[in-house]
Write a structure and sequence with these properties.
By secondary structure, this protein is mainly alpha-helical. Helix content is 78%, strand content 0%. It has 13 helices and no strands. It is flat and about 60 Å long.
């Protein structure tokens, strides 16, 4: 994985930036949304060429096609991370530290997906799906926020699907994550992390009990079995852990009477780091799998806290 993060992923993301750079420097790059547009176009071309080379070089099997398709979808979803940062500097046309941080983040996500799709275990491929889902949501959310500034909306409005729960804008989320009045409630961050850990343990216990009731074999996970015998109990435990984050985020927000989601977000991040450290010491193989779900867990915790605010 170190080779992927240090060489393969930076080289691929650098090639995408090089492909989009002439458009960034041209006079046609005049809207903030153009950053996402040109970055996605460059990534799509790169993904098409990379997929073609991979399929030609490797034996054509269903497993190989699935892994290539995952990366084919992921490439256009990763580049908008740094494309959005380029759109912010469309007037000065000088990349800032925000672009560098965004590019590094996209490179890390790229490296993680490369590692997951190249692993021999089917469980690693399963772990790539939540990363794709998170990337798709982040791209849609960022594009929706930018289009709203130009008075445009998506064809399918979220208000039609959830009329009472409109999705927050990026500015609203930034405001909720910013402490505007009073000091940060440090004790609620610690209490929230402990509460999140407790809810996780309770949800895992419930998942294990449910699994035993229906006859699932949880020992198949330890044997790294790639069949459905291991995937089903693993998915059950993963879903139970993820379900703990919105619940704990909601409870911490209500209990602390906070006017933002900063404390629940930090408590969730602290709990996630603690879980990653414990997995790194006890089960390094599961660490990569947990890293794939960590952003999803954090977003779910913030979502639960958002509902706790009564927004």
């Amino acid at each position: 994985m170190l080779f992927v993060l240090a060489f393969s992923a930076p080289l691929a993301e650098g090639a995408k930036v090089a492909a989009a750079w002439p458009a960034f420097r041209s006079s046609h790059f005049d809207e903030e949304f153009d950053g996402i547009l040109y970055a996605t176009a460059a990534a799509t071309g790169f993904a098409a060429g990379h997929s073609a080379v991979t399929l030609i070089a490797a034996p054509l099997t269903i497993d190989a096609i699935l892994r290539v398709e995952l990366l084919l979808i992921a490439h256009p979803l990763m580049s908008p991370i740094w494309g959005h940062a380029l759109g912010k500097v469309r007037r000065s046309r000088t990349p800032t530290a925000r672009f560098i941080v965004s590019w590094v983040l996209a490179t890390l996500v790229h490296g993680l997906l490369l590692h997951l799709t190249r692993a021999t275990s089917l469980l690693a491929v399963v772990a790539a799906f939540p990363v794709l889902g998170g990337l798709a949501f982040a791209t849609w959310w960022g594009a929706r926020d930018l289009l709203a500034r130009f008075g445009r909306t998506a064809r399918i409005s979220a208000r039609t699907v959830l009329p009472s729960l409109p999705p927050p804008s990026l500015s609203a989320v930034r405001h909720a994550l910013r402490r505007t009045e009073g000091p940060i409630l440090v004790h609620w961050i610690v209490i929230g992390a402990l509460a999140t850990t407790g809810v996780m343990l309770a949800m895992v216990a419930l998942a294990v009990w449910t699994g035993h009731q229906v006859g699932l074999d949880f020992s198949a996970i330890e044997r790294e079995d790639s069949t459905a015998r291991a995937i089903v109990p693993l998915v059950l435990i993963t879903v139970s852990i993820l379900a703990a984050f919105p619940v704990s985020g909601y409870l911490v927000t209500k209990a602390s009477s906070s006017d933002g989601v900063l404390e629940p977000a930090l408590s969730a991040a602290l709990a996630i780091v603690a879980v990653l450290v414990m997995l790194g010491l006890a089960a390094p193989v599961a660490l990569v799998f947990a890293l794939a779900f960590a952003p999803v867990a954090f977003v779910l915790a913030c979502t639960g806290a958002w509902f706790g605010l009564g927004k």
